[in-house]
Structures are given as C-alpha cells and as structure tokens.
Amino acid sequence: MNELIGQRQKAMEWFIQLLSVVPSDAAVLRRLGQLCEADGDLSQAFHYFSDSHRYDPNNIAVLEWLGKFFIESQLAEKVAIVCNSTSEPWK
C-alpha cells in the first residue's frame, strides 16, 4: 500500500521483487508500466507494457496504452498491428 501514500519508488521495488517470483505475470508487468509512466519514464513503461502484452495479448488496458504510445510516437501503423496480432510487432 506504499503506492497509495505516494511512494511509487517503494511500490516499484515490491513489484520488481514480485516479478522475480512470477516473471510472466501480465498484471504485475502492466502495473510496473503504469508506475514508470507516472514517473515519466516512457521507455521503461513501454518495456513493461510490451512484456505484459506478450503474456496477455487481450488485455484492453495494455492494448489502449500501446496504441496511445504508438500514436503519440507517430507510429500509427503499429496500432493496427497490435490490435490484430498476439505477437510483438514492434520488435
């Protein structure tokens, strides 16, 4: 509950520890992406969201985030690929 009181860094440390136990947990990866985005680290956020997409390609929140990221990065052609694929088209 560190996150609730504004301690994102501590929350990130806990999620990273959790990820070492369950490295394919799409929800943990998504949450780490959200925390990185809140800290302004879009590169790292993209890393976590794309990993989350690999394990759960049907998660709407992740698809929305990746779509928004690609549009803002002027990579709109990647949006259709992400929405129509369960692979990682951006690699």
How would you characterize this protein structure?
The chain has 91 residues and is mainly alpha-helical. The protein has a single domain (7-83), classed as Tetratricopeptide repeat domain (Serine Threonine Protein Phosphatase 5, Tetratricopeptide repeat, Alpha Horseshoe), CATH 1.25.40.10. Helix content is 68%, strand content 0%. It has five helices and no strands. Helix 4 runs antiparallel to helix 5 (76-83). It is globular, with a radius of gyration of 13 Å.
Quick synopsis:
With 91 residues, the protein is mainly alpha-helical. The protein contains five helices and no strands. 68% of the residues lie in helices and 0% in strands.
Q: What's the layout of helices and strands?
A:
Elements: H1 8-21, H2 26-38, H3 42-55, H4 60-72, H5 76-83
Helix pairs in contact: 1-2, 2-3, 3-4, 4-5
User: N-to-C terminal Cα separation, in Å?
Assistant: 34 Å
The rounded Rg comes to 13 Å
Low-confidence stretches: none
The residue-averaged pLDDT reads 83
CATH superfamily assignment? Tetratricopeptide repeat domain
* Quaternary structure state of the chains depicted: single chain
CATH class: Mainly Alpha
- Quote the beta fraction: under 5%
User: The CATH topology is what?
Assistant: Serine Threonine Protein Phosphatase 5, Tetratricopeptide repeat
Under the CATH scheme, which architecture would be assigned?
Alpha Horseshoe
Report helical residue fraction.
55-70%
What would you call the structural class? mainly alpha
Shape: globular
The SSE order reads HHHHH
